[in-house]
Design a protein that fits this description.
This protein has about 80 residues and is of the alpha/beta class. It has a single domain, classed as NAD(P)-binding Rossmann-like Domain (Rossmann fold). Helices cover about 40% and strands about 15% of the residues. The protein is globular, with a radius of gyration of 13 Å. Helix 3 links the parallel strand 2 and strand 3.
Length: about 80
């Protein structure tokens, strides 16, 4: 799995974090072959997900990077519910 695979994704889900909720989403999406990419900050989890062939992006997340205006970040269509 690499950046090229992620760039080819269309009409997919984006899961932020492989915590309690993220884990509950990943398994059914994989079973149903619904495309998704997982964004995770934990390097150890990213290595585990790589072995499981899960498309993932490892990031250093913060409220600033996650919730900056999409027009200034190149993430059009990304919405932040955090106030």
């Amino acid at each position: 799995m690499n950046d090229v695979s992620i760039e080819k994704l269309r009409d997919h889900f984006i899961i932020c974090g492989y915590g309690q909720v993220g884990r509950r989403l990943v398994d059914p999406l994989k079973c149903l072959q619904i495309p998704f990419v997982l964004i995770e900050t934990n390097e150890g989890l990213c290595r585990k997900l790589l072995k499981e062939k899960v498309l993932r992006i490892q990031v250093m997340a913060s409220a600033t990077t996650c919730c900056s205006p999409p027009e200034s970040s190149g993430r059009e269509g990304v919405h932040c519910d955090r106030q």
